[in-house]
């Protein structure tokens, strides 16, 4: 036993007689422990637990003398975040448990959004796998790696539904659909937290951003949100609720207003809905400075907004210094109660208890684990396979893909030879120089079977300032050469080649936080390059990098082959090559609608009908709901994605034509692999409720299954339909299913479906 452990053992003597797992999972023991601890805490120490300050610059070996260490010693800090490295974290934890009066261990949080040093695809890409096992595993690997490096709390999953790709943070979420988003929320919480939060390789999840952050007006980050409660409950809340019910340990508030009140001070949201309605009992942390930002929202001064936040149900203050700085005064002035402070403090302490930190504050600080469990071959293989599953083949008209490993391949484009832009936004623990660029990966993939040549061809955009705005944190790839020089070089390389692979799109920082765009098409600089390449007459495979749904109308009209690769993580280079060369068959399907024009936004598949829907097949009709200058259809619909093989859907049938509220129905379809590759297909079930007490969407995803089919094989895929799948929130916000006619649709995407009908009999059921 180490010295620290001996010291610690004195404090928790009675607890140390019990086995760890039993201890963490016994609520009455936890309550007794926390009662005892809190009875010894001063008001200031309680407020310290509610404080999550900026980590500051902590250098290994210097932790004890850093500014933050002084605060920790005083008991003014509940946790820290985004501090990387087990050595540093151990030193800081040591200050907390050896030098603060009550020796309360710290939480160590981090934005481990899609992996740690082994980076998985950005969440939006992960969602395009529709593979819950792979997604749970991605979270599991992230938990293993970050916990090996000292982290015990991750600010993930981000489950904000987003229907507006102008918003850069679409990259961090799971797309536009609440049903799929809920399944992913559950898978991620399970992956991070496992079945026992106190194990040293599980971490506490933090569901964010509660709530509705993805509906920021005009797609501008941090902007106002305003929607009906009916829409909140039906379309935006389900993934948060799913994560709460999956037992996520913490929630993060969002920056936006909800019903006119910033989420961080919204009692209805944080207490009535999250705790009372959903029965959730974790702790709520604010987003970065969300308390002090309420001053700009016009909610009062720091003291006022801090009291509002606490009273609403916020437990921990990230960076604003509002709780630690003003709540003592507010207590004296009767603006907050001691019970409210105690309640928040208890919730934070409970989280620490559940993580096993009182049992062993060094539980996540094992240097051996850090040396052996990060960026391992197994984790990298998982990330590579998952990345390949996330790519969406949008077009392959001339069957240019897969490519053969032969001849001369020209790899051209601003994203072709950059390591730093492979992992994607919010990869805070990424180790760029360990990752391959696509150029490197392609040379490795072909070995001596083919020659890969390279030219950059263009900058991301002609405007250096716009490019700088969207390429920070070591991701800058600006080239000083002239447009002409770059294009000439590229065309020269292309002319010598048998095939061109054009790596174009966004840099990784053109999506993510504070990366809204008003124009979602490929910048002119890159279009000019593509046009010049097209004029060589060589076959072209367009590989599009993006952190959102982009507008690819121009490209789709001119190029026969488009593979959307998002940002695939640390192993993206190899994974892209796996798909380009046919070692893996693409199977990803869009979880966001790809519009034809920004003017169509918001465009999403599960919309309501209007009283004047456009007749099918038409693109304009006077006095119908449409545009003068563009049709209503997306370029690529939700759920869409091609394969190297082809699938045929036949014989959709139901086990019966009627169903009662307590009964079930089975929808069955035969899916045949009619092409030349063994491959996965994601079979999708949609339902439409034809008559309701409120207007119902034209279709809603209600089931999906990823199936593997060998060439020529037919599989019968079945979905069970029960009343839960038919329920929705009515005007009273009751979750009900109403009798009447329903359509059941099954297909390879939300557009190309077969339809059958049934009737639900009986009355409204809750
Ligand atoms: C983001 C959060 C993130 C936090 C901590 C904020 O700016 O909105 O998603 O978890 O910073 O890094």
Automatic annotation (TrEMBL):
One of its GO terms (molecular function) is beta-glucosidase activity. Its EC number is 3.2.1.21. It is an enzyme of class 3 (hydrolase). The keyword Hydrolase applies. Residues 1-22 form the signal peptide. Pfam families: Fn3-like, Glyco_hydro_3, Glyco_hydro_3_C. Residues 681-750 form the Fibronectin type III-like domain. It catalyses: Hydrolysis of terminal, non-reducing beta-D-glucosyl residues with release of beta-D-glucose. Keywords: Glycosidase, Hydrolase, Signal. It comes from the Bacteria. Belongs to the glycosyl hydrolase 3 family. PANTHER family: LYSOSOMAL BETA GLUCOSIDASE (PTHR30620:SF16), PERIPLASMIC BETA-GLUCOSIDASE-RELATED (PTHR30620). This is beta-glucosidase.
């Amino acid at each position: 036993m180490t010295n620290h452990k001996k010291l610690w053992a004195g404090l928790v003597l009675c607890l140390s007689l019990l086995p760890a797992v039993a201890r963490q999972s016994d609520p009455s023991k936890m309550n007794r422990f926390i009662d005892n601890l809190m009875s010894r805490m001063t008001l200031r120490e309680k407020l310290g637990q509610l404080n999550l300050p900026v980590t500051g610059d902590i250098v290994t070996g210097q932790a004890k003398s850093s500014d933050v260490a002084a605060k920790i010693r005083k008991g003014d800090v509940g946790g820290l975040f985004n501090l990387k490295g087990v050595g540093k974290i151990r030193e800081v934890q040591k200050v907390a448990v050896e030098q603060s009066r009550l020796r309360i261990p710290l939480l160590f949080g981090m934005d481990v959004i899609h992996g740690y040093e082994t980076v998985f695809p950005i969440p939006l890409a992960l969602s395009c796998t529709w593979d819950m096992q792979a997604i749970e595993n991605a979270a599991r690997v992230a938990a293993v790696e970050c916990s090996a490096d000292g982290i015990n709390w991750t600010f993930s999953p981000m489950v904000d539904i987003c229907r507006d790709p102008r918003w850069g943070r679409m990259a961090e979420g799971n797309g536009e659909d609440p049903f799929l988003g809920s399944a992913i929320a559950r898978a991620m919480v399970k992956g991070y937290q496992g079945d026992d939060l106190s194990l040293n390789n599980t971490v506490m999840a933090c569901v964010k951003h509660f709530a509705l952050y993805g509906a920021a007006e005009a797609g501008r980050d941090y902007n106002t949100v305003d929607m009906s409660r009916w829409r909140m409950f039906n379309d935006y809340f389900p993934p948060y609720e799913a994560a709460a019910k999956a037992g996520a340990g913490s929630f993060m508030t969002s920056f936006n207003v909800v019903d006119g009140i910033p989420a961080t001070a919204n009692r209805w949201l944080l207490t009535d809905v999250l705790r009372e309605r959903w029965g959730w009992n974790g702790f709520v942390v604010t987003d970065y400075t969300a308390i002090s930002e309420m001053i700009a929202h016009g909610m009062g001064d720091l003291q006022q907004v801090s009291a509002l936040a606490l009273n609403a149900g916020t437990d921990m203050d990230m960076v604003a210094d509002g709780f630690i700085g003003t709540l003592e005064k507010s207590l004296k002035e009767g603006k907050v109660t001691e019970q409210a402070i105690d309640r928040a403090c208890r919730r934070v302490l409970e989280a620490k208890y559940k993580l096993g930190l009182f049992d062993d504050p060094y539980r996540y600080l094992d240097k051996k684990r850090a040396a052996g469990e990060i960026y391992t071959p197994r984790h990298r293989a998982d990330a590579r396979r998952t990345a390949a599953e996330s790519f969406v083949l949008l077009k392959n008209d001339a069957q240019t893909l897969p490519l053969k490993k032969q001849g001369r391949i020209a790899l051209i484009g601003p994203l072709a030879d950059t390591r730093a832009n492979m992992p994607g936004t919010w990869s805070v623990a990424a180790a760029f120089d360990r990752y391959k660029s696509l150029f490197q990966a392609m040379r490795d993939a072909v070995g001596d079977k083919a020659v890969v040549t390279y030219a950059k061809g263009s900058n991301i955009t002609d405007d250096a300032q716009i490019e700088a705005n969207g390429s920070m944190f070591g991701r800058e790839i600006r080239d000083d050469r002239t447009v002409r020089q770059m294009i000439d070089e590229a065309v020269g390389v292309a002319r010598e080649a048998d095939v061109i692979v054009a790596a174009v799109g966004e840099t990784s920082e053109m999506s993510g936080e504070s990366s809204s765009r008003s124009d979602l098409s490929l910048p002119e600089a890159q279009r000019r390059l593509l046009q010049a390449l097209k004029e060589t007459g060589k076959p072209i495979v367009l590989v599009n990098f993006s952190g959102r749904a982009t507008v690819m109308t121009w490209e789709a009209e001119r190029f026969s082959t488009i593979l959307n690769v998002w940002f695939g993580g640390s192993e993206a280079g190899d994974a892209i090559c796996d798909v380009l060369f046919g070692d893996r068959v693409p199977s990803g399907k869009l979880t966001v609608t790809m519009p034809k024009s920004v003017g169509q936004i918001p465009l999403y598949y599960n919309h309501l009908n209007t009283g004047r829907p456009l007749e099918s097949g038409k693109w304009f009709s006077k006095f119908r709901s449409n545009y003068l200058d563009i049709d209503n259809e997306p370029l690529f619909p939700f759920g869409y994605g091609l394969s190297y093989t082809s699938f045929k859907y036949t014989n959709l049938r139901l086990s019966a034509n009627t169903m009662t509220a307590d009964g079930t129905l089975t929808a069955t379809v035969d899916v045949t692999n009619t092409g030349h590759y063994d491959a996965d297909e994601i079979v999708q079930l949609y339902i439409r409720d034809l008559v309701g007490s409120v207007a119902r969407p034209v279709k809603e995803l209600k089931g999906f299954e990823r199936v593997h089919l060998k060439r020529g094989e037919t599989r019968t895929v079945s979905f069970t339909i029960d009343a839960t799948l038919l329920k929705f929130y009515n005007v009273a916000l009751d979750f009900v299913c109403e009798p009447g006619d329903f359509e059941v649709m099954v297909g390879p995407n939300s557009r190309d479906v077969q339809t059958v009908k049934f009737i639900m009999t009986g009355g409204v059921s809750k």
